[in-house]
Task: inverse folding
């Protein structure tokens, strides 16, 4: 009952016209990012953080969350119409989505994808509502040692699951920690790694680093050949699927929701694993499995539901435990921190009004996404007709403006460019970028909780193993890191996913 | 087809550029034209709070914010920059342009002491701030868990004397008011606690206390007001000359036989070097906001006694505090 009350209060807060506008703009911008092939969700969200820096915390987070799950839908459009996925999680949709386009059923495919995204996203958000209260109440049990142990688990998962080589993932993670150390020591106040430059006292700007490492480096490694094929005018005559198509989609959506929700809860899993698995499930269990690959609606409904359920479910560990499940969520977490909110168990004790308003807005946003996307499909595809030379130049312009507006300083623009070059180098060396973003966000929190823990124990490290919750968590972290030795395999799809 | 293409591109560009424009931060657009037309319409003023949201500094700043907006006729945005016991926010405040568009909440002793200790490498001194007005003095209190065996401050201090460092006690950061209070206790009574520095502020320290991760909560009256009423903390003593009006049943330290006072004084300041008329305008608006009857009442509800001082008097008070804290600073400096 209490939860319902707080959720309703959250709805009241989320329904102000400003917050509705932010949710709408977020969905719109998120869809654009999803549609644009040159820019992924991580860089997209990072790029738009500067826009929100001067908003109030609730509005800013509502908008960034909307951008985040908007990207999960935007990628579908290009998958279905152009056979080019806008982002990795929609790659599998190309098979049946594009096949449907070829037989003149693009409208039905996109509508089903939008409805599936709505269903998956909404059910996953209900999961967040159910989990928030009980996990939020555990918040007080989580003291500094437990908090530190949670961070260790989060980092272990992402390091273990990222890229092909764990050594390279560790290098990337260590780099992120190093960068997070720049600035005033958060406890004792002494400047660190500032090389006497006053500009570095406040640390390296997180937004500039992310935009550089993910956005600029992606743009720099974007080759001419990557330009998508010419757009065929989509046949949108019938947007509405037939009754039979609805009936066929329902079980696929149900399976997709289950898969996306389950995998979304596991940090380190990306949306593409969910959509791949969901496609696999359709191949095994669907009544029309023999039609898959030839334009079966299940091949769109399942994966598209799964990747949105995944995106929304991935917010659960962020809100309740403070663990970002993917690089995009790590960037989102960075935005929370910039707004003075610490995601995690204490969020519901210290900022419960804002937390519930954001959760309510997730429901609203999923609805907006549904209403926004079906009628505007024509508009999205026309963005793709802009030649990539113009598009990339525009995106580059936004990156420079974005970096500049963080503090209105040219210094941040150079930081962005410098980290763009670093990102390019890391890409060439095949070093995954995800662990670096994660440790960059978690570094200061880890340092703080580590030092507080050691003050509580007066310097005794056994505090991490003598308290049951942190002991279990630390053990879990070690197990994850050493899992390759135990021959536990990770899903193949993660090796290929550019987001990791 | 062509028009649609252009439309789409224009829409995408316009929505982004439009938003960037809205988000424009006036803080850095130069001190030009700062004089008589201050504050320019539509140009917002940043109020930097050097502690996390939910603490007393933050709450007070958010209370005066609407009145300030009304007085100045422009947006005032509260920005939390927690860390290093206030030093991160103070650094940002003092490195902003003195054009009136950046002001900040300043609390002593943190703001007074951080530049005195060379090991902190603070980039500011007392002269880097232009005090605009003092709002409150918030006395320090000592509280324990509600089921703690210690019923009086004497019980607690005797136990901490018998077994030094057997109990942990929270502070809001190294060399903040709470840290000084602990050091003074140790110096005067021999009772020794193990300090745990929650360098982002009181809300973080209180959460840790409620989760029983620290034994003793050292905080201000306003932090424990609600906790005490809800029975979540047993307040043992107030370190002020007289009992706090919001906690009438709690004895002062003096009543318990320890002649010690400690507290946090909070006000608002700008980076030094404001044009005179800008300073005047800000000072007047801040006075109005602090003395606003509704604000005073809300502060009272939180257990905070408004005690306004104007800019000049706040400056004198600040200088006096600097002298006082210089003497006790060695108590809280790292000995290694």
Result:
């Amino acid at each position: 009952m209490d939860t319902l009350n707080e959720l309703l209060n959250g709805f009241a807060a989320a329904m102000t016209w400003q917050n509705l506008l932010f949710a709408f703009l977020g969905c719109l911008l998120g869809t654009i990012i999803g549609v644009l092939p040159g820019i992924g969700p991580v860089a997209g969200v990072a790029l738009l953080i500067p826009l929100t820096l001067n908003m109030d915390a609730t509005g800013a987070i509502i908008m960034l969350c909307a951008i985040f799950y908007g990207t999960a839908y935007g990628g579908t459009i290009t998958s279905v119409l152009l056979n080019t996925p806008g982002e990795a999680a929609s790659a599998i949709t190309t098979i049946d989505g594009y096949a449907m386009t070829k037989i003149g059923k693009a409208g039905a495919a996109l509508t089903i994808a939008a409805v599936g995204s709505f269903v998956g996203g909404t059910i996953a958000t209900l999961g967040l509502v159910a989990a928030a209260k009980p996990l939020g109440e555990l918040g007080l049990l989580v003291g500094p040692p437990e908090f530190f142990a949670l961070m260790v688990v989060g980092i272990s998962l992402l390091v273990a699951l990222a890229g092909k080589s764990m050594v390279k993932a560790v290098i990337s993670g260590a780099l992120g920690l190093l960068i997070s150390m720049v600035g005033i020591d958060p406890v004792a106040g002494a400047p660190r790694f500032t090389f006497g430059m006053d500009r570095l006292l406040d640390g390296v700007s997180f937004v500039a680093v992310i935009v550089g490492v993910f956005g600029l480096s992606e743009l720099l490694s974007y080759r001419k050949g990557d330009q998508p094929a010419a757009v065929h005018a989509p046949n949108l005559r019938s947007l509405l699927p037939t009754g039979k198509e609805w009936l066929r989609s329902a079980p696929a959506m149900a399976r997709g929701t289950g898969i996306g929700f389950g995998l979304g809860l596991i940090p380190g899993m990306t949306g593409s694993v969910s959509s791949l698995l969901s496609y696999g499930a359709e191949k095994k269990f669907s009544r029309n499995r023999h039609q898959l690959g030839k334009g079966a609606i299940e091949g769109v409904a399942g994966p598209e539901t799964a990747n949105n359920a995944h995106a929304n479910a991935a917010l659960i560990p962020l809100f309740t435990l403070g663990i970002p499940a993917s690089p995009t969520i790590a960037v989102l977490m960075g935005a929370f921190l910039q707004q003075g909110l610490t995601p995690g168990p204490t969020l519901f004790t210290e900022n419960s009004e804002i937390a519930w308003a954001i959760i309510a807005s997730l429901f609203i946003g999923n609805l907006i996404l549904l209403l926004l996307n079906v009628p505007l499909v024509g508009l999205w595809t026309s963005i793709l007709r802009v030649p990539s030379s113009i598009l990339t130049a525009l995106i580059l312009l936004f990156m420079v403006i974005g970096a500049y507006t963080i503090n209105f300083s040219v210094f941040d623009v150079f930081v962005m460019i410098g980290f763009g070059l670093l990102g390019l180098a890391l890409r060439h060396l095949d070093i995954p970028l995800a662990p670096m973003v994660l440790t960059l966000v978690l570094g200061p929190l880890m340092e703080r909780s580590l030092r507080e823990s050691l003050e509580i124990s007066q310097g005794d490290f056994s505090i991490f193993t003598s308290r049951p919750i942190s002991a279990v968590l630390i053990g879990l972290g070690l197990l994850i890191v050493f899992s390759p030795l135990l021959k536990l395999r990770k899903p193949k799809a993660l090796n290929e996913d550019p987001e990791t | 087809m062509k028009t649609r293409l252009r439309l789409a591109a224009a829409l995408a560009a316009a929505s982004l550029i439009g938003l960037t424009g809205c988000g424009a931060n006036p803080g850095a657009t130069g001190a030009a034209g700062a004089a008589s037309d201050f504050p320019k319409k539509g140009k917002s003023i940043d109020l930097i709070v050097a502690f996390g949201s939910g603490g007393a500094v933050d709450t007070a700043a958010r209370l005066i914010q609407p009145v300030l907006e009304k007085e100045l006729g422009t947006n005032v945005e509260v920005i939390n920059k927690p860390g290093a016991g206030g030093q991160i926010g103070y650094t940002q405040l003092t490195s902003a342009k003195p054009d009136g568009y950046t002001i900040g909440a300043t609390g002593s002793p943190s703001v007074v002491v951080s530049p005195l200790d060379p090991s902190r490498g603070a980039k500011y001194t007392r002269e880097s701030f232009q005090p605009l007005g003092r709002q409150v003095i918030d006395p320090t209190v000592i509280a324990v868990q509600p089921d703690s065996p210690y019923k009086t401050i004497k019980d607690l201090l005797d136990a901490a004397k018998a077994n030094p460092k057997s109990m942990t006690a929270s502070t809001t950061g190294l060399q903040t008011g709470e840290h000084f209070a602990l050091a003074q206790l140790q110096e005067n009574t021999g009772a020794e606690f193990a300090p745990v520095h929650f360098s982002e502020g009181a809300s973080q320290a209180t959460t840790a206390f409620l989760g029983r991760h620290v034994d003793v909560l050292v905080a201000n009256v306003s932090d424990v007001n609600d906790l005490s009423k809800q029975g979540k903390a047993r307040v043992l003593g107030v370190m002020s000359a007289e009992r706090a009006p919001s906690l009438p049943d709690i004895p002062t330290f003096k009543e318990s036989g320890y002649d010690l006072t400690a507290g946090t004084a909070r006000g608002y300041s700008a980076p030094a070097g404001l044009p005179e008329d800008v300073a005047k305008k800000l000072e007047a608006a801040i006075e109005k906001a602090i003395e606003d009857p509704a604000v005073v009442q809300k502060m009272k509800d939180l257990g905070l006694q408004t005690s306004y001082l104007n800019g000049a008097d706040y400056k004198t008070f600040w200088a006096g505090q600097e002298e006082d804290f210089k003497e006790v600073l060695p108590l809280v400096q790292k000995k290694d």
About this structure: The first strand of chain A starts at residue 183 and ends at 184. Chain A touches chain B through 56 residues (CB under 8 Å). The two ends of chain A are 40 Å apart (CA to CA).
